[in-house]
Description:
six-stranded mixed sheet, CATH 3.30.1330.40, alpha+beta, 2 helices, globular
Amino acid sequence: MRQIIQPKGVWDPRPRFAQVARSGDEVYVAGQAPVDEDGNTVGPGDIEAQTRQVFENLRRCLEAAGVRFEDVVKLNVYSTDLDAHLSTIGAFRATHFSEPVPSTTVQVSRLVRPEWLVEIEAVAVKRSQER
């Protein structure tokens, strides 16, 4: 059975799509964009500000589903300019993940809003209570 979760502090896109779905121990986080809880773009033209917002949105989504960054088993990263953005995205990634996480990183011609520079989606699996 699938449960839709709307995290507090994250823009609510319903009914078009959901931010988080949980099925059993699996958690699927939709691509998180650099937007505040009202859907306003954060840091137009600023990859650091946008990446910070994306990771904050990811954190809120994961926590709303009862998981953390350490439970993430897959990331998909979309950037509009990998040459310019990869080091910044990588630096934020390193602060949130202590172990390697399988990921796909691609450059796209644009995201849903033309001012967005980065979007990241995640899949996590809730670990048993015995850690």
